[in-house]
Amino acid sequence: MRKLLFILILNSLVATAQNFNLASISNGEYLIFSAIFDQNQKLYGYFSLYDLGKVNATEKEFEFVILDKNLNKILSNKVVFAKEIIYLVPYINVDGNLVLSPQVGYNITKDFVMPRSKKLDLKTNVIEDYIFYCYEDNQFVDCPENKSFREKRAELRKSKREKEYIDDSDVWRLKNNNFLVLTKKDYFKYTKDNELIYFDQYKKEMWSFKYNLDGSKKNTEALNVMHYNDDKLYAILRSKIKEDITNYIIIFDTKTGTIIKKEEVKGFEKVTLNSYDNSTSMYYNNDNYVFLFNYLYTKSGVMGYLTTKINKKTNEITHHKLEYEKNLKNFLPKINKLGYVENGYYLNLKDVFFMEDGSIKLLTEKFKAAGQYNRMKTTDMVFIATNSNFEVELVKTLEKEKSKNEYSDYMFSQEINDKKDVVFFYKDFQKDDETKDKNWFLFINTLINGAFNQEQVTISSKNDKYISIPYIAKEGYILLREYNEKEKYNEIRLERLNY
Amino acid sequence: MLFFLSYLMYSQEKEYKLKNDTIEKENFKTYFKQSYLDLEKVVLPNHQAEVKKQLKESFANFNKEFIEEIDDDQFIYDGRFLELANEILDELKNKNSLIPKDLKIIISKQTVLNAYCLPNGILVLNMGLFYWLENEDQLAAIIAHEVAHKVLNHGIKSQLKYIEDNYSDKNKKIVKSIAKNQTKKSDKAFELFKSQLYTNAKMYQKHEYEADSLSYSFIKNSKFDSNQIITSMRLSIQYDSIKPEGLDKKIYKEVFNLPLLPFQEKWLKIEDFSQYNYDLYKEKINKDSVSSHPEMELRINKLEKNYPSLLGSTSKPASFGFKKLEKLAEMNIVPNLTDLENYGYAIYVCLLNIQRENEVEHHKEWLGKNFKLVYEARKTYNLNRYLDRIDPKNQSESYQQFLSFMWNLKIEDCKAIADYYSTQITH
Prior knowledge:
The complex is a heterodimer. Chain A is mostly beta strands. Chain A is 8% helix and 54% strand.
């Protein structure tokens, strides 16, 4: 029941009752309320979306309202998309425009053509198609309209019949208005002659880096860009020969393309190296470091975490691993080598905080997957603080009631104090020892100057008939959508955090 | 000497303290409930089943909300205000046979210049009227206007129109047919919704003109000066244009530089909202066109045209009794704002008065009380209930500065300020 209540309310963060009356029909169907972040991951404001229904046989209209970071209305507008689009995801692009990216459900046909995103100028409220750049025949062109799955498949078949390979490319517009282009010859079963090309804002080529020159079915090289700034570009080159993968960290001079450093990743076993940079790896950077973080894949399974840290000033590259059993046993005596802590519960990673001093803090939650006869369950949060060598300094078990059928009680986190510190939030449904009533609590956890602190706030009450749903807000604040029988308290609030 | 001074202050505070009579409150609650039951007996038999059902429901809802307000102590039962207000009402009743005998006045703690009359004959006068109006004749004008609404049965008429719009068979059919539309149903619904709002707004505006005319005759028949009708309307225009403003930055440094907590410049830092263009937002429905009240200037023009003997704007000194009530209302602005949980605005008013050197001790005491409440609200993450967020488009610079200051404080700063001003003033 409590889960149902939470989901119901979460789904209608700002929705009003959909009665069968004129006002509700004219408002349309409420779809989403979502935060909008700028390119620096700073909260710009909020986006509220409504479906106004079909405007003709093939299209439907959406209405949206943009609010500022204090929930004041900035603008509203309408936009028409194909009827298959179920909602829009908003984000701010490098030009500071709001891009509305259409999302489809499962019921689309092979003839469906994904419409272009729309671009909204936040200074003028003018909407137009958002046309991406493509790179063809050594020049930038506007990307053509999308094609349907059926058309794309037919084209691919034709290419395979007629050509040995096709030229393929990806274009990224960078925060500094420059461009990165990755080109390759796609031989359908492998790629070859890949090239990373760096262009300035006027689309003038500055430098390029060629790799995978001998690409074949057995030998391939792949390049992933971890981070760039005006001075350096950090990348991982993954070189695969048969089943063995060698990873190289490459630091380029962004202005000239000169390789400042190229270093092979060593010190891990073969299985770990093969999965060093895979779909679960994440890149992060702050003022001082560039990080790669991933699970520690081994022959026996995932045995912990690994990290690579590049010092932005000295270019020093260090690799570290944290093994569940070896490094956490002192703090969690029951932990085994695969991260299981008790009765089928294992440490499920929820968030990772990369600090300016190069240390990493991990937030995990004890989680038990659903079995044939059991629902999934979660219990305590476990906070693991490591130092700049990824050595465990502190493990704090944040006790929490058992949540059944709930994937997680973790909510979200926020960087504070110029990204030096962090605050994270989770919820828990607890019973009051005296009244025996069960209510929701919000736990606000701060890590400031390395010191952990926790605050507990009641966010629901059976007696007072209210429930508040927390949501992400501007730095130092939290948004609380309160549903209260008392009309005067039935509102969205922005509350300052007490750190 | 010191003892004498503090005794004097204590007795003054006592004089200005409003009576909080729980028996009166309970009596009023009983009266309120009964008056709605009586109203139902009179109104419901005249209508068909569906309308009857809806009216009953809306009465019940309103009853519940109003009782909540009574329970929340939003009203006061202090004889000093009631005495004068009832004297005025009696004079109007005695001179105008149209006015029903069973009207009852209640005083709300609200500080804004406003009053309203409920269909059950409860006339609510905001305490703000006693502060913002200049004399009892103006108060009589306001009371007469609200009584006129009751005499003309405007409350019930408006409710019936709402029911017709939403629940009549005819309208239900229209809404159903719109909902069945395959395309553009939202546009169609909006057009009809808008036209209903505009039609209703016209009806409400007509009600205002009717109440203006009738109240003029009520005043004319009484001892009160009818010219004060226009003056009170002009005051209302003035009042509506008032925004919280006028607080000097200096005052923060004076009031919040405490021995244990020196003033910090960073408290005055204002958050940057320059990236937003607020002019882009357009309401879908023109607010003026759906306002229930026509522009006050238009109402004044109409009254002056219909009753040429009315003098544009005349001043009249207040009686000694009204002046005393004016002071009583003034001294209760901050306590009332506090009771109404508007702690932020209460602190703003305290600072304005300290800046103007008006009743400084009284306002410092309430500054402390409100900071204590702000501190408690910060602890439970509820402060935004009681303190506004910054809204750059609609707030004065001074108010934005104030809100920035309040939100910039750390929770321990709020506590230190609350402690300082609570211990400074001890009676």
